Amino acid sequence: MKKITFLFLSILVSITYLNAQETGTIDENLLNNWRTTFQDDAGSKAMMNAVSSNDIQKLALNRENLGKIDNHFTHRVETAGITDQKSTGRCWLFTGLNVFRAKVIKEYNLKEFSFSHNYNFFYDQLEKANLFLEGIIATADLPIDDKKVEWLFKHPIGDGGQWTGVVDIINKYGLVPAEVFPESFNSENTRWMSRFLRRKLKEDGLVLRDLFNEGKKENELRTAKEKMLSDVYRILAITLGEPPTEFSWRYEDKDGNLSEEKTYTPKSFFETFVNIDMSDYIMFMNDPTREFDQLYEIEFDRHIFEGQNWKYINIEAEKIKEFAVASIKSNEAMYFSCDVGKQLDKDRGYLDVNNYDYDALFGVDFGMDKKQRIQTFESGSTHGMALVAVDIKNEKPVKWLLENSWGESGFEGHLIMTDEWFSEYMFRVVIHKKFINEETLKILEQEAIQLPPWDPMFSPDNYYWK
What we know:
By secondary structure, the protein is α+β, with helices and mostly antiparallel strands. It contains 17 helices and 14 strands.
């Protein structure tokens, strides 16, 4: 009987193994074929020895591409000074403020000038905390494993963001000069502060859901929320400092002329020195996975509860370039975000699709186009910078210049990108409406197609640090 049982089990195991082979498992025959193919390739062993002991990117550097790009541009926005976001995801904020910084420097004839990033970051974090808790209240009747609730708890707060955050935070809280509210250690190194904020907000989110399940009314939930936000304010004040509500300030221009010292609020400072209608700026995207010449809106993608969701016009890259050239020729920088880690030569500060030849290094084709990279989450916006220059030859752009926020790294604190790289890895550009044609502006009259917050294009400009 035991022999029959053993024989039966052996047959069952064999059938299971054969069935497994038929359903896609890796068997010994396959492994042997791959080993033989690899070992029969004369160059494979040499490549294995070289690559396994060295940096892949350095070995893939395409030397034929070196020296093909110069550092000159036919049209360049007047700028002064380089900023440094340090170990944070605040590139979106640095980029937005750098666009307006160039205007202040030119209009007031300054050698250099910078806004306080710490000031706006304080309120960005406070507002994002409120937005999260309001989201929890709005979804309190949904099960905790609902996709939207799950998304909220996965993304309670972060230091990344995009253009709508720049607009809403400035409109509500104004601006202050950098010396009035300087950086703190934690504004330049956000990891631990962000970790504790996330932990506390997740805890508070669960408390709000419990209160809802106990039958508490919406006004009672908001009363509880206000106490939770007072804890957030306390954490922010301890780590970043407490932002000013009023300050005195004066400046010296390039010619040594000292201005009169005046007292400002952050909002009156913005109105005096910048005084821009933020609604005049239009966000463009180049997302080939979706229909062009359409208006889109991403649900819950904003920095302030009462603010505007991220809304953008999706158009071809060539149209965006046309508008961008007009802006640069008028000495106006733009908010620009892209997938900066792709084909980036950080030492030279060059973005070129031919910088690295990974296909030749591995003997394997990497052939996805932009649409396919977006669909598979292989590519998305990872970093924001200010677009400040273009080089035009034969009436066409050949390369562009980006003012970065990584200090003096790259090309004198900038990145140079080829026009081809612009097409492949640019995602967002924000341009003043005066540089946009009427046909494109009419797209803003459409009812926006709403996308969920987990859409591939949601990714904030935050997670590629220097």
